[in-house]
Recover the amino acids of this structure.
């Protein structure tokens, strides 16, 4: 804890020291141009085009220019990864893991600058950016440990003098397509298990946050991961993402993003019989029972709804509250929400940073309009975009609470992915669970109650991949499986040891040392 505070203080200092540029044009003149990483070389896009990565808290702050890559760039990266596969696959897993532990050390060493970079490109407050980097560190250490396990199993064979076992083998070349809101944690969840299992990869980060993934790949290079094993290609989903998804040489696509894009990715993979792991949207609910510690539930609701400006797949976008405590809960929630400070995530006084870009502003403001006009919910606080003073050049939307929401309303059904939450009344635990389950997603849910029976009932009845008791809907740890049901996923789980089932395939091996033909299911064995 103390170390974390110290690291964050240093990160703030690093940000404060960052050169302040005088005006828009001089800022642009000094902007750094970044490259793709293909076959161990940093190279521009073959097409020569770039796109700008800007700070969502101040769009005049241009962070860098990144390659607007083409299909040819994606193909070159796939070729490099294919070439590197034979060597990497035969590198013993404990040795692969050593390089990953080294990567973990580099991330620890650079945590403060990595967090500062992330806040600058993504907007989340510095403490949360530090958490994102920490998740990558935790994932690296935990998953690298698998280099000395990657357990298979042995099992009896049905014939005498015959041995049976099952081992993991790498799947081959993996395409990793990632979203912008956890720009280091999510790439690491995919990259580290892919590598420890012996695969080679091409990563395509989201357009809004290429720098954090660039930083991760740069650290891989420094750790000594051989050329071609990790390749980075930045650019649009429609071009680079689709090129990877459709490439016959890419055996597996691991995708995190919206359900709509995930469906496109899944259908392309199905066409060519590629393995496809999807982590997609959420509409997560906190249930607050009448016996709950209301103050604790409010803390959880604020953190879950407005942390990362509500831009988490696990965000608490629905608060289902027992009618007996509904008024008390709602008025306290509104009071606390109104007190949240908005601003640049680099400012230690900020509670809620900007949202990611202009499209996000448009979508979130549309939903706020739908909540008021189409749904007829009560806008209890927030609801405005801030455009003056310090907010003039950023994408700031007030933390917003709707009350008197009914389960069928669009704001209670659809993923808004912004600082907006809906408070929905319920008369009983059973009704709360029914409402909580009554959406197309199934990622995370939680209950606040003092009653163990109610907690276990909800735990059993919620059809989600993650469940919390007396805690918010966010806060997953890397050694437990992560993922969701229904429209959130397609049955895979990241993190934990379960992620190994995505990035390796089972091979069953039979060794017959009887010296004669033994036919399973046909020959009788004398007892
Ligand atoms: P998005 O779907 O817009 O983009 C995700 C990635 O897909 C980006 O890299 C994008 O460039 C790429 N992409 C876009 N079109 C593509 C195409 N046609 N082919 C291949 N790739 C393409 O999502 P986003 O806005 O970056 O992320 C937000 C979404 O991610 C939210 O819905 C959120 O709930 C979800 N999410 C889910 C989880 C989970 O584990 N369930 C975790 C984090 C985020």
């Amino acid at each position: 804890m103390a170390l974390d505070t110290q690291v964050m203080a240093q990160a703030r200092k690093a940000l404060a020291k960052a050169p302040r540029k005088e005006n828009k044009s001089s800022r642009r003149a000094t902007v750094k141009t970044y490259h793709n990483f293909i076959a161990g070389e940093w190279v521009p896009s073959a097409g020569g085009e770039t796109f700008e990565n800007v700070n969502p808290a101040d769009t005049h702050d241009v962070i860098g220019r990144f390659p607007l890559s083409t299909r040819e760039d994606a193909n070159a990266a796939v070729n490099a990864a294919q070439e590197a596969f034979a060597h990497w696959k035969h590198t013993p897993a404990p040795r692969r893991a050593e390089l990953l532990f080294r990567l973990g050390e580099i991330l620890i060493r650079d945590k403060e600058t990595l967090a500062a970079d992330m806040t600058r490109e993504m907007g989340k407050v510095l403490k949360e950016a530090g958490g994102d980097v920490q998740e990558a560190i935790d994932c690296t250490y935990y998953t690298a440990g698998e280099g000395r396990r990657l357990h298979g199993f042995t099992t009896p064979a049905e014939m005498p003098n015959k041995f049976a076992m099952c081992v993991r083998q790498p799947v081959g070349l993996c395409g990793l397509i990632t979203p912008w809101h956890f720009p280091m944690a999510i790439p690491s969840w995919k990259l580290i298990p892919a590598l420890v299992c012996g695969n080679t990869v091409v990563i395509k980060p989201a357009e809004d946050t290429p720098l954090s993934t660039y930083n991760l790949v740069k650290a891989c290079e420094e750790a000594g991961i051989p050329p071609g094993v990790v390749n980075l290609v930045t650019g649009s989903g429609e071009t680079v993402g689709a090129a990877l998804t459709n490439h016959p040489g890419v055996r597996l696509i691991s995708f995190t993003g919206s359900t709509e894009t995930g469906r496109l990715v899944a259908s392309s993979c199905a066409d060519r019989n590629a393995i496809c792991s999807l982590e997609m949207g959420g509409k997560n609910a906190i249930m607050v029972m009448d016996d709950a510690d209301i103050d604790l539930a409010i803390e959880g609701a604020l953190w879950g709804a407005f942390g990362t400006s509500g831009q988490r797949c696990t965000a608490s976008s629905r608060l289902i509250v027992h009618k007996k405590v509904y008024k008390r809960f709602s008025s306290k929630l509104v009071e606390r929400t109104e007190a949240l400070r908005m601003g640049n995530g680099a400012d230690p006084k900020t509670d809620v940073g900007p949202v990611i870009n202009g499209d996000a502003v448009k979508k979130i403001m549309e939903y706020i309009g739908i909540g008021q006009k189409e749904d007829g919910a009560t806008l209890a606080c927030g609801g405005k975009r801030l455009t003056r003073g310090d907010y003039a050049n950023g994408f700031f939307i007030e933390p917003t609470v709707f009350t008197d929401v009914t389960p069928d309303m669009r704001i209670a059904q659809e993923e808004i992915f912004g600082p907006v939450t809906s408070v929905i009344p319920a008369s009983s635990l059973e009704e709360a669970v029914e409402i909580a389950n009554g959406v197309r997603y199934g990622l995370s849910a939680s209950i606040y109650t003092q009653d163990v029976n109610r907690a276990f009932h909800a735990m059993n009845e919620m059809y989600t991949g993650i469940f919390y008791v007396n805690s918010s809907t966010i806060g997953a740890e890397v050694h437990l499986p992560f993922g969701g049901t229904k429209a959130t996923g397609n049955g895979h789980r990241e993190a934990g040891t379960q992620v190994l089932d995505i990035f390796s395939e089972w091979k069953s091996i039979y060794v017959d040392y009887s010296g004669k033909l033994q036919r399973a299911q046909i020959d009788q064995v004398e007892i």
